[in-house]
Specification:
Layout lengths: L1 E4 L6 H7 E4 L2 E4 L4 E7 L2 H10 L5 E3 L7 H8 L6 E4 L21 H11 L3 E7 L13 H10 L7 E9 L10 E9 L20 H5 L22 H7 L15 H9 L6 H9 L52 H8 L11 H9 L4 H15 L1
């Protein structure tokens, strides 16, 4: 199966096609060839190269691809699949939603479909895309579906989309994303999204990360301290890895550290302000900004809340470790996303967290890849 990978980031979606899960290990899927990948962000492109060194990563603005360049990259072979999801920040229901240039990048995905003419495509984005409207008040999803169904007189795609929650597919995280599948309209292929089987157990946050070493504020830990792994998920994530990376904690000021020290699992901003009201904490610790779930401590016995690029920022969302007085480390965030510990990220601390928070969880990507490979592999 020949694949073109757009808006690849560090490679979460890529991972699902690059590997199979066999007997509790990630094994290279020799049936999938990623012909080329594209990413605009330099740090994410470098991370991709580190993890998929045999893939031709083109680091450039997707708008700069000419028809001649695309033709040269794909050669004479039929491309079976385009995968990828344009930047999602503009569609997110958290923060300011705006129909800006990033929101319009699905038009570049459309342009690449017209040039590559794959048999299928897989498009991913945040759930908020379904309710986003353009400058004329029209639903963006309607525009996407219309354009992708009728690319030109002889090319179009039959469209199906669904919201999938990563927690239903082996990922220890509640994370809803919309996936659009397009099947070229000259093909007689029936698609069904992978489904959640009621009663299937989920993986809790504690089950996912409890084996990772204790880390203190202002500390980076590079060695494992626990070698008696407790479950299959920990064994899968650890693999044969021996050197721990990205397991670091920032330095906190007095106010943030005091809040972290006092908040209990399942509580957040409102709990802290209640402590101030009762005189348990001084007035200077009152929180006047943020959402009700900010400065929140996670629950150990449930899957994690959605990981974002703010995964280590207590003022940004619920991300305080369930029993250590600190926020999650990037490596813990990667674990929660289902990246194995040997997966490498690149750049400064903000860039690393962005690569993790923006990614499609590899285990969810793997479920979609299995479905697609059964149809056209």
């Amino acid at each position: 199966m020949k694949i073109v990978d757009l808006f690849s980031g560090a490679g979460g979606l890529t991972f699902g096609f690059y590997y199979n899960l066999i007997n509790g290990e990630f094994v290279r899927n020799e049936n999938c060839e990623i012909v080329f990948a594209n990413e605009f962000d330099n740090a994410a492109a470098e991370a991709f190269r580190l993890n998929f060194p045999d893939v031709n990563m083109i680091h450039k603005n997707i708008k700069e691809f000419s028809e001649e360049e695309v033709t040269a990259l794909i050669g004479e072979d039929q491309i079976d699949l385009i995968i990828g999801g344009p930047p999602c920040q503009s569609f997110s229901t958290i923060g300011k939603r705006k129909y800006d240039d990033k929101a319009k990048l699905y038009n570049e995905y459309y342009r690449m479909l017209s040039l590559v003419r794959p048999r299928m495509f897989l498009f991913e984005n945040v759930k908020g895309m379904l309710s986003m409207r353009d400058e004329n008040g029209n639903l963006v999803m309607d525009d996407i579906a219309s354009k992708f169904r009728h690319i030109n007189d002889d090319l179009g795609y039959n469209i199906q989309y669904s919201v999938l929650n990563a927690v239903h597919f082996g990922v220890p995280q509640y994370r809803e994303r919309v996936f659009i599948i397009g099947i070229r309209n000259d093909l007689d292929i029936a698609w069904e999204f992978p489904t959640f089987v009621e009663g299937t157990p989920t993986i809790s946050l504690q089950e996912a990360i409890a084996d990772l070493p204790i880390a203190q504020p202002a500390e980076e830990v590079g060695e494992y301290t626990h070698y008696d792994l407790e479950n299959d998920y920990q064994r899968l994530m650890r693999g044969n890895n021996h050197r721990l990376t990205c397991h670091f904690v920032p330095t906190y000021g007095d106010k943030i550290q005091t809040i972290i020290n006092h908040v209990i699992p399942g509580e957040g901003k409102d709990y802290i302000n209640n402590l101030v009201d009762k005189g348990i904490l001084e007035e200077k610790y009152r929180l006047t900004s943020g959402y009700s779930n900010t400065y929140g401590r996670l629950l150990p016995n449930q899957p994690c809340t959605t990981i974002t690029k703010n995964l280590s920022t207590p003022s940004g969302l619920r991300c305080i470790h369930y029993n250590q007085n600190r926020a999650l480390t990037p490596r813990e965030g990667a674990r929660i996303q289902s990246f194995p510990d040997w997966f490498q990220f690149y750049g400064n601390r903000f860039e690393v967290k962005t690569q993790i928070g923006n990614a499609v969880p590899p285990l969810l990507a793997m479920k979609l890849a299995e479905q697609i490979e059964r149809l056209i592999g």
